[in-house]
């Protein structure tokens, strides 16, 4: 992670498409007002992307191929990282009925 820069988009110097998948789930429908055309709800979002700069699979396989007799380290394929250390997509959720209800995790 010594060369990893969390402030740069994973495809910063690439022309390749970068996919971010957002899944939205309605948890609770609180209120539905058809006259006012308003909906109150609780929703959850799951965001998935692949930052190839954090993929060490090739490095691990090279080490294993150099020493075939060594057992494959299982824990090396799955690693937990502090979320503050990695790039995350910027997300803004706005309410067109009330500008004071805008959520954003856009940093910088």
Would you spell out the secondary-structure blueprint of this structure?
Blueprint lengths: L19 E14 L4 E12 L7 H10 L25 E2 L9 E2 L4
Antiparallel strand pairs: 1-2, 3-4
Description:
GO terms for molecular function: extracellular ligand-gated monoatomic ion channel activity. This is Neurotransmitter-gated ion-channel ligand-binding domain-containing protein. By secondary structure, this protein is mainly beta. The chain has one helix and four strands; from the N terminus they run E-E-H-E-E. The two termini are about 20 Å apart.
Average predicted local confidence, pLDDT: 77
Taking the alpha carbons of the first and last residues, their distance comes to: 21 Å
As residue ranges, the low-confidence spans are: none
Number of strands: 4
Give me the secondary-structure category: mainly beta
Order of secondary-structure elements: EEHEE
Number of helices: 1
What is the alpha-carbon Rg in Å? 21 Å
Q: What's the main sheet like?
A: 2 strands, antiparallel
Percent helix, as a range, is under 10%
